Amino acid sequence: MSQPELFACVPDRVSVYEVSPRDGLQNESATVPLRGKLRLIDALVAAGLQRIEITSFVSPKWIPQLADADELAEALLCSPTHRPRPPGVRFSALCPNARGLERAKKAGLDEIAVFMSASETHNKKNINKSIEATIKAFEETIAPAREAGIRVRGYVSTVWGCPYEGDIDPARAIAIAKQLHEMGCYQISLGDTIGSGTPRQTRDIMVRALGELPLEAVAMHMHDTRGTALANIVVGLELGVRHFDASVGGMGGCPYAPGAAGNVATEDLVYMLHGMGVGTGLDLERLVEAAKAAESIVGRVLPGKVHQAGIRSLRA
Ligand code: HMG
Ligand code: MG
């Protein structure tokens, strides 16, 4: 009996959107000094990452670890002492509102990311607004950003589950994603904020997402709290998804989502992808170096596996 071909729909190439300087460092108990952040971003660029979320233009009272967002962006984009941004690299930053957009414009960023949750309680705890009020506030952020020539990405958090409300209706989460896309976000990153997702659930969510949004507009942002991030990503790959968020060393977590641990580690994701014959344009050895640099910058052992175990055994 013939077997259905395994991984028949997996794309030949995918893009990795790196979030360690933002999602990673926002969740460290100690604030990393500016020079450490620049060292991390340099290591990411050296590994070939071209889409990097460098910081957040949020309230410094809410996320003190990223209070130096303006200085960081200035050092990266304006300072003649820092090495120039290589061609093709796009830096982005989280922006919750019009105030954040003004800061991003001043910094000269050409991309921002707006973010909200599929659950009312996490949305309120994270950005102090109802879902309805958040969408309203985004009218003052997304369209004006686009008019200023700034691309806008969107996040929907807690799609796989909320730390306060538990299960989330996937239809509701995907309706929010669709609304953000219609408002002008070029891509929507669907977040398993607390890393509770499992493959069958992922299939249900992603089939719905791909039924409502163009393939290129869909990204997955998987936290690995329970060790299921890569399994969920394989489900996305099999459905043809081509955009994945990741964080070197597996840093990350949302301070307003108790129990959330790190994102899928970039080096673990890329090890798996290259082993499956999926191109990323990234240099795995240099990603391992970036993960080790991240460990020395944050001063703790990071949970990513490949930077600890080494790359041995990977097919060329
Ligand atoms: P608020 O207190 O309701 O804001 O916070 P407000 O409008 O009432 O203003 C209060 C003060 O904040 C004012 O200053 C404003 O100027 C200031 P004051 O007059 O008191 O001196 N303010 C700002 N300052 C700097 N930049 C700004 C800004 N906006 C207002 N942009 C707010 C509302 C949204 C600002 C706040 O809740 C906030 O900053 N939240 C950010 C929380 C956050 O960053 N969470 C982590 C990221 S989300 C995540 O990790 C999930 C994700 O990774 C995907 C996933 O995993 O699922 C993306
Ligand atoms: Mg996250």
Description:
The chain is of the alpha/beta class and 316 residues long. It has a single domain (15-308), classed as Aldolase class I (TIM Barrel), CATH 3.20.20. It has helices spanning 20-24, 34-46, 69-77, 98-107, 120-127, 131-139, 142-147, 170-183, 199-212, 229-238, 266-275, 284-298, 306-309, and strands at residues 15-18, 51-56, 90-94, 111-117, 151-157, 187-192, 218-222, 243-246. The strands form 2 sheets. The protein has a 6-stranded parallel β-sheet with strand order 1-8-7-6-5-4. β5, α8 and β6 (187-192) form a beta-alpha-beta unit. The radius of gyration is 18 Å and the shape is globular. The protein starts with 14 loop residues before the first strand and ends in a 7-residue tail after the last helix. The structure holds 3-hydroxy-3-methylglutaryl-coenzyme A (HMG) and magnesium ion.
